[in-house]
Write a structure and sequence with these properties.
alpha+beta, Lipocalin, 2 domains, 8-stranded antiparallel beta barrel, 19 strands, about 15% helix, elongated
């Protein structure tokens, strides 16, 4: 249940409608900002303390053309703020009201609320706007909404790279597009390891997915496709993998830091 702190009835209705619309479709396409920084901007990421935080798809802010009220979404909760302009170079933000829902991504929400206050300098590009705080932290935004995250299940995932710790290497050209998989809603996983077809039972528990024993065809595989197949077989059999989807990219990471990235294709039938 949503609760509101010190909000007039009309603003409660406005924020409720805005939050409901954002949550239902991942945010609607914003108008291309015109004069100065005015318009609707979709947050892409924050940088604070040397750390980058990726924004949820609904994080956004609509900036006024002059001294007026801004509205937005921290990633879950709606907010208002009073904005004054210092020419084209900076704005000063005074936070106003906010909704008070219990949200999953509290780290991002807290950081966004902390950064979007006080004097912020502007770096305006044709379709991008970056707000910078006095200590160098930034809010990177674009005029285009983010694509919603692809679902883990029912999506055809094509392996794009293999990850080892902090480094990633693209799949060799000879094996590109050869390794792919999908996980059905009932946990039935199937696809190709790069050469041989496989099937397995996948179990999704929160941020982790585990693959049971793989059943595969038995073609002899050599070269880049064989090497890719060996690494994927070891990864899928290594125990629970942490999964994360951002837009159309899936990352699977094992406890030892090895993993893969995969790109979303057409939904599986």
């Amino acid at each position: 249940m949503r609760t509101f702190r010190h909000l007039p009835a009309a603003l409660v209705a406005l924020l409720t409608l805005a939050a409901a619309t954002a949550c239902s479709d991942g945010g609607t396409r914003g108008t291309l900002p015109g004069h100065g920084s005015a318009g609707t901007w979709f947050v892409q990421s924050l940088t604070v303390g040397g750390k980058t935080l990726t924004a949820p798809p609904v994080a956004q802010v609509t900036l006024p053309a002059g001294p007026d009220q801004a509205t937005g979404n921290y990633g879950c909760n709606g907010f208002t703020a009073e904005v004054t302009h210092d020419g084209q170079a900076a704005i000063t933000v005074k936070p106003g009201s906010t909704t008070a829902m219990a949200c999953e991504n509290t780290e991002f929400e807290t950081a966004f609320a902390k950064l979007f206050t006080g004097r912020l300098t502007l770096d305006r590009q044709p379709d991008r706007l970056t707000l910078k705080t006095a200590d160098g932290s930034t809010i990177a935004m674009t005029s285009e909404p983010q694509a919603p995250d692809a679902p883990l299940t029912t999506t055809l995932w094509t392996v794009a790279s293999l990850v080892s710790g902090q480094s990633a290497s693209s799949v060799p050209a000879e094996a590109a597009g050869k390794a792919f998989f999908t996980i059905a809603p009932d946990g039935a996983a199937s696809g190709s390891l790069g050469c041989n077809r496989f099937s397995a039972k996948a179990t999704v528990e929160g941020p982790r997915v585990s693959f049971g024993p793989l059943t595969s065809t038995r073609m002899a595989c050599t070269g880049p496709q064989g090497e890719l197949e060996t690494e994927l077989t070891a990864l899928f059999g290594s125990g629970p993998l942490t999964w994360k989807v951002r837009g159309d990219t899936l990352t699977l990471t094992a406890a030892d830091g090895n993993g893969l990235t995969a790109k979303a294709g057409s939904a599986a039938e």
